[in-house]
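Late entry, written up from scratch paper. The run itself happened at the end of the previous shift, but nothing got recorded in the book at the time, so transcribing now.
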Amino acid sequence: VLARRVNFLLTFLVVNLVVAKFSFDDPKNPSKKSSVEIKDNGLTVGGNNLDLNSSKGGGDQSSYDAKGGSSAAAVRCSVTDHSMDMSININLGMNVSKQVTLVAKNLTVELTKRDKFFRKKVVPILKSVNFMASPGQLIGIMGPSGSGKSTLLNALSGRLKGREYNIKGSVAINGFTDIDLGYLTRMVVQDDYLLPYLTIKETMDIVAGLRLPHYSKKDREEKIIEILDIMGLRHVQDTYVGGISKKGISGGEMKRLSIALELIQNPPILFLDEPTTGLDAARAHDLLSYLSSLAHTTGIIVICSIHTPRSQTFALFDKITLLSRGFVLGQGSPMDVVTFFNDVVTPFPDNYNPADFIIDATSLVELVHKKVISASIYVPKDATIKEIELAERNLDGEEPLYEFEKSVSRDDISMKLFGLEVPSIESLDEFHKIYEQSVYGENVKKGIDNHLRCVDTSNPQILFENYGNIDSANMKILPTQTICQKIARLSPIPGPIRFCREVKYLTKRILLNTWRDPNVTVGLLLVNTIMAIIMGGVFFSLPRAGENDFDTAQNARNIIGLIFFVSTSISFFSIKGLVVTVDERFVMNKETYSKMYTPISYYFSRMVADFPVQHIQTLVYTTIVYFMTGVYDQNLKTSLADQFGLWTASTQAGVFLSYSFSYVLSSFSTSTNTVFQIFPLFSLVFALLAGYFVTFDQIPVWIRWLGWISTVRYTYTGMILSVFIPGERFSKVTTDFFLDQFNLWTTDIWLNIIVAICLGLAFRILGYFLTAFTLRNYKIAS
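Output as recorded:
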C-alpha cells in the first residue's frame, strides 16, 4: 500500500511539472492557465475563452474575437490572405462556419432592356468591379441610390442568371468559379416576410427541421437556443412575430430574427440587403454591432448594403466598398476610404460624419459630371443658390426665367450648392481610373491575384480541407452539386423521405399561421355565414309547385337564378387563396433558392394546408343556403340525404376546381395588384360561359371552348342536376323538361363531378410547372 501511494505521488508531481512546462499565464487572468498563446497574432486560447484581436486596418488582414462554448471547430488564421497558412482547433459556443474566401475579378453586369419601340438597349449596371472578402469580415457596400449595391449583392451570391443579364468577369469561392452558390450563401432581403402568427421559437424550430434533417430533436433545440442567445432574442422567443394585422416583436428584433434563420446552417457567407431599413440610428447601430460580433466570432463573411450610417456604425465595418453608377470609387477600411477621398476629391470637413462625407463627395462628382461639365451655365458672379438652381433648369430643356450677365465657374457653383471644393475630375470613369491606379485599388487587385495563385483548383478535394466534420477519405472528383452539398453539410437523403419531411414541416407552418389568424378562423367563417343568411333570406323557402305551368316555370327560374349566384360566389371564394399564395411567393423563392426545400414540397404543402379552409367554409355557406331556400323536395323518390349529398358533392367539386384555377393564376401573378386586375376578368368570362344567360350550345364556336375550362360552369351544372334530378318531378312537370331547356338532359351528375375534379387536378399540375418556370425569373429579379 505504501509503495502504491508513493508511486501515485511521484506520478502526480511529474504530471504537474509537465503541465507547468508547457503552459502560459493568461494575461487577463493570472490565476488561469492557458494552453496556447501566439503572441505574434495577438491570439490567446485558454479553457473556454478565446480572444483574437482585430487590427481593423487596411489590406486583407483580419481576425476574430470569440468567447465561450464547448463544441470544437476549425478556424483558419491567415497572416496575409485568410485562405491559407495555419489552422488550429478552438472551442466556441457556436460552431465556427466553414472558412471560405470570396473574390470577384473584373465583374461587369449589363442589363438588356427594350424601349417603348421594342428596341434593345444595353444598360451597364456594374463596371469592372474587383472585390475580395475574407473570413471574419463585416463588409459594407455603400453608395447613392441606383449605384448598383443590390446588383452587386445578387451577382456575388449567384442570383443573376437570366438571359437579360450579360455577366462578364468571374466570381470565385476559394478559387472555384463553377459552384452553385445557393448551397454556400444566405441572403437576408430588405423586406422581412415572416409568418405573423408563429412565435420566434416556432419559426426557428420549423426552419431548423428543414435545414438540419440529420440533427436529432435535442440537437436542433440546442442549436436554436444557441443562436437566439447570440442574436439577443432568447427573452422574446415565445412572442408572436407579428405583422400588419398582429402586434408582435419590434422591427429590430424582426430583422435579427431574419438573420438568425439564415444562421441555422452556419453559412460561410451571409448577404444582407439594406438591413437597417426602417430602423432608427440606435437600433441600426445595435444590429450592425451584432453582425460585427457574429463575423468576428464565427469567421463567416458578412456583406451588407447600406446607405449612410452614423459615424459609430460606420467604424464597425472592416471594409467598405463604395459604388456610384456601377463604378467602384473606393475600397478598403473605413479610414482608407475617407483618406482617399480627402486626398483626391475634397478635404474632410471638421465635425462631419465620414459616411456622409464620402457619399456627398461621390454625389458631388456625379453631379458635376452630369450638370456642370455637360453644359454652360450663365449666372452672375454674385448669384444666389436660388439663381443657380434656376439656371440649371436650362439643362433640363426648359427656358430660363431670365438672362444672366456672365458665366461662373463650376467651382463657384459647387461651393454654393455643397459647401465643398469641387474635384478636378471630368467624369466618374476618370475617377474610377484614379482609384484603380491608387495604392488602395492596387492592394485589392494584388490581394485577389495572391489568393488565386495560392489556391489549388485542380482537385475539388481541396475544398474539404480545414472545414471540419467532413469525411474526405477516399474522395474522388465529384460533380459540383455533390461538392456543394458536402461543403454545406447537406448530405443527400432519399427523395421520398426528403419530400415527406419537407411537406410535414411546411404544412405545420402554414396550418399554425392559418388557424391562429382570426381573419381565417373567425372572419371568413363569419363573412360566409352572413352572406349565406342574406342569400337565404332573399330566396327564402322558394316554392316548387305553382297554380299553373307559368308559375311553375317562374319558380324553376328563381331556383336556377339562386344556383347561378351560389356557383358564382363559390368561384369568387378562391381569390383569398390566390392573394395568400402570391404574398408568399417571395419567401418561397428565397427559401427554395437557398435549398431549404423544393418547389414541389411547398406547392403540395400549400394545397394540403388550404384544403380544410377551402372546403369547410364552402360547406357552411352552401348548407345554410340549401336549407334556408328550401330547394329540396322531400316528396321525391330520391331521399333528402341523397339530394343533399348530390348538392354537397357538386359544390365541393366546384370549390376544388375554382381554387385549382387560382393556383394557375398565382403562378404568374407577381403582386396582389395583378391578382385584382386579372381575377375579375376570368371570373366574368367564366360566369358568362356557365350556360345561365346563353345555353352552352348557342355560344359561338370560336369562344365556346373556354366554357370547357369554366370553373363556374361545372359548379352550376352540378347544382342544377342535384336539384332537378333526372327522372323526378318538379311540381306537375318532369325535371327532364327543364333540363332540356338548358341542354343538360344528357349530362350525368357524377360524370360532371369527376370531370370537374380531373380538370382541377390538371390545373394544379399546370400551376406547379408554371410556378417552377417563373421561379427562375423571379429569383433573378429579387
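Residues 563-781 form one domain.
(Scratch paper discarded after transcription.)
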